Structure formats: C-alpha cells, structure tokens
DNA sequence: GCCCAGGAGCATA
DNA sequence: TATGCTCATGGG
C-alpha cells in the first residue's frame, strides 16, 4: 500500500529532487524547487550548512518565507557554522526575520551550529548520532530527521504534519500521532534507501 | 481582513 | 499522557 502511494505520487508529480539548495540556483542541475531529475550532487560543507539552516527555519513556516531568510544570510556571507555562531543574536534575528519566529529561531540556529562546530560534522560530512542531535534545544524529531536525511544521506524517513494528515485520510490511521510509530510503519514497507525516503517525503509535501 | 505554513518547548492537570 | 499556549512573518 505504501509503495503504491509512492509510485502514484511519483508518476503524478514527477521527481522533486530535494533538498532545494537556493544558494546554488543558476548552477547546472539546480532550480529553486530542487535538483534536476537524476542529479544527486556531492554535498559540500556549505550545502550541509544551508540544509541545516533551512530545516530549522522551515519549522511551521512556508518555504517561500524561508527562502527570503536564506537569501539574506547568503547576502551577508553567512555560509558556515562559525560565521553564524559568532554573529550577535539581534543581528541574526533581523536577518532571518521574514521566516517568522525570528527570536526563537535565531537561538535555535546558534545552538545547533554550536553543536556542529564542536563535532565538525558539516566539514567532514560524517553524520552526528541521532539522540545527541535530538538533545539540542529547538531540534525536534522532524528537524533531526530532515538534517540526517538530506544533509548526510542517512536513511531515516521524515514524518511531518502532511504525513500524519495523509495517513489519517488514506489509511484511517496515523498511529495516534506518534512520530516514531508512524515512521516505523512506513519504513517497514519500503527499501531502506535514503534516495527513496528523500523523494517520498518531498512528494508528500 | 482572515487563515495558516515542511515544529518545538513549556506549563498545567 | 494529553491538551493548550507561545512564538511571528508574509502569501493566498
């Protein structure tokens, strides 16, 4: 059943090619919506920084507004964890203002960048351990899994509000709104493949 | 004007 | 465990 939904979505909407890397728009293979079909770029430090930042900024927020904030950071040449970590909090919150919740999100970003700075994950591309990342203030299950899946290609499926809604309506159950229960029931029926999880989540959104 | 977006933390019972 | 509140801008 789950695989049928994936196939139908892919057939109907075509490959989405997430994560959208707005700082690389204009390079061959990149659009504002995602990668071109079949393109899976080797991620660099700046790409991982951008994905982590976007994952936090998009919490309960439309991507259109997130993109404004990401562009402002890019224009201010904030491209690495160390750039963001040393920025005064007010300065940061004003830069990301269009994405909403800017005071909270500025704190969350500095916290998570501090974590990555200490562990060096954005530079090396070696993924952090899930429980440790989940322990960072402001980083809940969905944001953790978005980071692991899209910035580090770790095969964890991202469950979001749309997933709960869709499963409720199609299958009559979304595991009592239990994140890990629904995640388990979905991945159980799919190949354990980061590319599949990336595409499926993007299609659901 | 009104509604809500690719959540998470916290307070209270 | 479960509900309810808070955070906030901008586009449809």
What does it look like?
The mean pLDDT is 96. The relative contact order is 0.13. The radius of gyration is 17 Å and the shape is globular. Helix 1 crosses helix 12 (194-204) and helix 2 (45-57) packs across helix 3 (63-75). It is mainly alpha-helical and 205 residues long. The two termini are 19 Å apart. It has helices spanning 2-13, 45-57, 63-75, 81-85, 89-95, 102-119, 121-124, 130-134, 141-152, 161-171, 179-187, 194-204. The protein is built from 12 helices and no strands. 59% of the residues lie in helices and 0% in strands. It binds a DNA duplex (13 and 12 nucleotides) through helix 2, helix 3, helix 6, helix 9 and helix 12.
Give the SSE layout.
Blueprint lengths: L1 H12 L31 H13 L5 H13 L5 H5 L3 H7 L6 H18 L1 H4 L5 H5 L6 H12 L8 H11 L7 H9 L6 H11 L1
The chain binds a DNA duplex (13 and 12 nucleotides) through α2, α3, α6, α9 and α12.
């Amino acid at each position: 059943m789950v695989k049928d939904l994936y196939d139908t979505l892919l057939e109907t909407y075509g490959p989405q090619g997430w994560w959208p890397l707005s700082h690389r728009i204009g390079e061959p293979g990149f659009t504002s919506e995602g990668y071109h079909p079949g393109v899976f770029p080797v991620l660099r430090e700046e790409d991982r920084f951008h994905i982590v930042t976007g994952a936090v900024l998009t919490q309960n927020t439309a991507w259109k507004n997130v993109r404004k904030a990401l562009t402002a950071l890019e224009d201010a040449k904030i491209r690495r964890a160390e750039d963001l970590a040393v920025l005064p909090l007010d300065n940061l919150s004003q830069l990301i203002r269009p994405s909403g919740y800017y005071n909270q999100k500025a704190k969350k970003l500095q916290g998570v960048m501090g974590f990555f700075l200490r562990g060096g994950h954005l530079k090396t591309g070696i993924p952090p351990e899930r429980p440790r990342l989940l322990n960072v203030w402001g980083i809940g299950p969905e944001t953790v899994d978005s980071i692991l899946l899209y910035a580090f290609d770790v095969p964890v499926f991202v469950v979001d509000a749309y997933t709960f809604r869709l499963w409720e309506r199609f299958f009559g159950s979304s595991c009592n709104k239990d994140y890990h229960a629904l995640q388990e029931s979905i991945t159980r029926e799919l190949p354990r493949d980061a590319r599949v999880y990336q595409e499926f989540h993007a299609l659901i959104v």
